[in-house]
Inverse folding.
């Protein structure tokens, strides 16, 4: 037992609940992530659907149990679908998760993110540079990769969580999650994970699956992060490099039980 | 020899013919499927080309030997390309295959599918919920996953095949294929297959490759389904989970000979 | 030591320099390639970003160290982004690499390529049929696959390099690279590589990473091709088929050192 954070439901209980529900999660994500994110969700036990065009994104958000939005390969058509879906999800009381990929990089991206932030995401998950820039501070982001440490982003995460009334997760070597009143660090994972593209994007989708299965978005986010951290740590034991990391990691997600997740998760109060 | 269906050409003969032709198949498919579908086709012995924009989709359909259309991540731009390509394929006498992914989910998708159905697909391949809904009955589809058994969709498949004058395939635990006069069930596959995203979409593309290589779309469809069923069953012997299923399955597709396919295929009259 | 080409910097030195720089490379590539190309670049040591929409593609090209453009799944929206990015890269003195996928196949594609060629790519990488058609000769291309040998395309490559003042690479069984004054052949690779989709597209992106790290685009291109040839040859020793080739190849890219690359690279003057 490595978890020192008091939780109303353990990550393992939330994983079991998520699998029992097999939640339909709508993901409007980037082209790089679509395939691996769908495979991560299927392996973990959720039911992903990639539905993005504005002609149906809002209608579908009312059917789905949760929505995730990722601006990695943004375009006006996708942005229109994101806004329609986020509005519908909020109206229908469905949780939605925002992944602000490299939002600081261009004027177009900054403006798009501002519009999405007004639609009040339930959870925001980003890397350290993204969260620092989102709080209005100067980040060292380099393209889509973080140039900052998670520790340097903790204050920014708390500030955003307080201002927006949402959960904020910063992922990296040690993850950090906060709703401004409670904060936790999640240990685990592997140095190979940033060398496989779109695993962070896939985690955003998995946060949506957990958020669809409980009314507690803080604990849902911590559980999804813990599942990734444990499966990633296990995969690294046998992965020879970034190429084999993906199939091994998917297999570990698929066999990870609630009991094993609780035994191995390391979630500590921050 | 497990095949009890009388066939003018065996699946193995059709596989050998397909590989000899190495047919150029145009696939307008969804973003999740594009990479794995291309890899499935290359492994099996076809030449895939993903060409979708309306400015060239029709011209390309006249060059290609077959066309496949999948509405998984539909948008108005893609729909325009699909219609241009389907019209050109029909005019040029090229077979085309339709994959009506979750067509029942939204009004936009239902309307788009109705337009595509009017362009007279040669083969329709879907899961049970999709085929039941296409016949006008009430399905239990959940997002993009089937909530119904293949057995429950057999009557719907026959009704659509008769009404449209096409081949209809329903894939699942046991596959079903019909042209309304003849029907067959194809056994094999693995429970891991629905846990890997877009394998059904990839199968739709492979049906296109077989349909490009014979004038008999019923037997072409049965052969493609049998190839998937045999390679899937073989892959499941060594796959530790959904992650490793993909590379193993691709390798099995690549080494499967016509002789082995005929020895292992299980196609029974229905 | 198999390299007989006099080079100012060896491939291994250029690989070490590329990894030290970890260049941010903007890739406007096709939907089939996006994931595997990003994984190839991360494994090799570059920082890929897929940013395509015209609203930000030009601004991003000024941030990135190099740009790559691939017309595999072209559409008007993507073409507008490609032109904005190529113009910005040229203005900012950043190298950009063009991959003219099946440009001979349709009128739309031919017209788009003509527009991109006017924006003066630093490097063009294609298969033999693409390069022959680009020089204005009759090629035997079949969809996206080459119907011609690299040897048959060498004269076309030299003619294009002279006319455009750029580097031209033709990849296939034996690769050929030229700036019209110097030409080299690069040996290695594996017959499995054309059976894995989008490896050529991924190589185009990797050329961008090397071109971002030196002022010598001819040697950058030769080094990227040599890295692919060596890692591909090594991967083929243990790959059972096209399915396992991908993870093995990514792992080989990740562990390949500058020293090993220099020891194994076979670059011969042509």
């Amino acid at each position: 037992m490595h978890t020192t954070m008091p939780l109303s439901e353990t990550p393992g209980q939330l994983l079991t609940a998520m699998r029992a529900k097999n939640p339909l999660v709508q993901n409007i994500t980037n082209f790089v992530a679509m395939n691996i994110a769908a495979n991560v969700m299927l392996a973990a036990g959720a039911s992903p659907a990639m539905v993005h065009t504005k002609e149906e994104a809002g209608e579908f958000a009312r059917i789905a149990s949760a929505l995730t939005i990722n601006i990695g390969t943004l375009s006006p058509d996708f942005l229109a679908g994101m806004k329609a879906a986020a509005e519908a999800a909020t109206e229908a009381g469905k949780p939605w998760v925002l992944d602000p990929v490299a939002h600081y990089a261009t004027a177009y991206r900054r403006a798009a993110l501002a519009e999405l932030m007004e639609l009040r995401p339930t959870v925001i998950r980003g890397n350290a540079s993204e969260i620092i820039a989102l709080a209005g501070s100067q980040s060292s982001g380099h393209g889509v990769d973080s140039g900052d440490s998670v520790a340097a982003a903790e204050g920014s995460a708390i500030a955003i969580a307080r201002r927006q009334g949402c959960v904020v997760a910063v992922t990296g070597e040690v993850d950090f999650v906060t709703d401004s009143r409670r904060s936790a660090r999640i240990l685990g994972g592997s140095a190979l994970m940033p060398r496989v593209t779109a695993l962070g994007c896939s985690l955003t989708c998995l946060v949506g699956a957990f958020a669809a299965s409980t009314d507690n978005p803080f604990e849902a986010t911590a559980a999804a992060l813990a599942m990734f951290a444990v499966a990633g740590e296990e995969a690294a034991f046998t992965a020879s490099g970034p190429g084999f990391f993906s199939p091994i990691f998917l297999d570990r997600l698929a066999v990870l039980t609630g009991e094993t997740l609780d035994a191995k998760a390391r979630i500590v109060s921050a």
